[in-house]
């Protein structure tokens, strides 16, 4: 039975979709004003693993991941500057050019990490009509009010406003940094903006639209509520995002959607934890907000980063370091070599491997792991155990690990036979020669070198070990 830890109820629950035919899934996407760091990438990969798990278990998934391209202020709150404007000023471009640029980089990076593309990728600026429609409903129902500067949602009217975070309202306000609201007409510091007018500190706002109440732009939270409703319906099966969004952004999404739609917004709330660097949250200010481009510049393939992500559960914090990435890259290489070795043994075509039965013992273990709140580190351990089990035939091993890889996404089926690989026989001679060198028996070592050369291979001793040329 598939179970997820639901932030809303604070327990693992058996997953039951609204419709047998399709699971609706909303994932809070990036604010496209800068390159997303690998901590954000971890969130996307964690989302991808859950989507792939659902599909592996036979569910059809409709995944929507939005792009925030207006209204997300620098404080995550009602204060500060619109992030897209900040990006525009930084680079001397228009907000739309900034959104286009960073949206492309985001898509390039998540593709390189082999994540399954979202089915729907809405932009907030393409959904202004729907956002205005939802604000109108909230005003009509008495959940919102207007001041000279903005339209606000009345938090005290929402049913059980802090149910997702489990915080009391005072703590919620304090944590959200809402004590310093600059609008004197705001009734409660916890109230949040649905619409900002092009006035006051936003009088020079670069992206504005006409609305029945005056020219302006939407708040960040209402965007997700409006897009989830438009593309997935009033009630969504699963909504996922970073844990930092639970007390503010997702809390506000629930308040707006349930007030406007009159039904439960989301059945299962899933939150992934942060990626840390040097044991603290990744941050641009600390110089640790690494991008995938930096990972590639250091000659790591993106799949090595994906492998690194697989080694921690989505609800656990994971600490990034270049050493840890190097270890993950080495493990992935070892896995690829093992696959290559098995492929050389069986010389089977992909069709033949597919036709071979999957080992049911390991498959049972694998499914038990992914069904238990997506325990991917355990699933990865099962894959390794399968690979190392020499009681299985090579084709059975390959068929089984390829099946598992449809969830893990390490592209194991694409591992090619290596024509330049050193044959086992030569490698054995090299290893043997090293043993003699280690004990100072260079005469014996040289004899083995001659033998290797007679077989057509040349070896060179370097500070990094033996280099072999054919
Ligand atoms: Zn969102």
From TrEMBL:
One Pfam family in the UniProt entry: tRNA-synt_1e
The protein's required cofactors: Zn(2+)
EC number(s) recorded for this UniProt protein: 6.1.1.16
Residue interval(s) of motif 'KMSKS' region: 281-285
Residues that bind Zn(2+): 28, 224, 249, 253
Positions with a binding annotation for ATP: 284
Domain tRNA synthetases class I catalytic, chain residue ranges per copy: 15-328
Region (Disordered): 74-94
Composition skew (Basic and acidic residues), residue ranges: 83-93
InterPro entries registered for this protein in UniProt: Cys-tRNA-ligase, Cys-tRNA/MSH_ligase, Rossmann-like_a/b/a_fold, tRNA-synt_1_cat_dom, tRNAsynth_Ia_anticodon-bd
Coiled-coil annotated residue ranges, if any: 325-352
Compartments it resides in: Cytoplasm
Cofactor remark from the record: Binds 1 zinc ion per subunit.
Catalytic activity: tRNA(Cys) + L-cysteine + ATP = L-cysteinyl-tRNA(Cys) + AMP + diphosphate
UniProt-listed GO biological process terms: cysteinyl-tRNA aminoacylation
CDD domains, sorted: CysRS_core
GO molecular function: ATP binding; cysteine-tRNA ligase activity; zinc ion binding
Isomerase found in the keyword field: no
One of the record's GO cellular component terms: cytosol
Sequence motif: 'HIGH' region, positions: 30-40
Transmembrane stretches, start-end: none
Entry-linked NCBIfam families: cysS
Complex and partners: Monomer.
Entries under PANTHER family matching the protein: CYSTEINE--TRNA LIGASE, CYTOPLASMIC (PTHR10890:SF3), CYSTEINYL-TRNA SYNTHETASE (PTHR10890)
Family designation: Belongs to the class-I aminoacyl-tRNA synthetase family.
Name of the featured protein: Cysteine--tRNA ligase
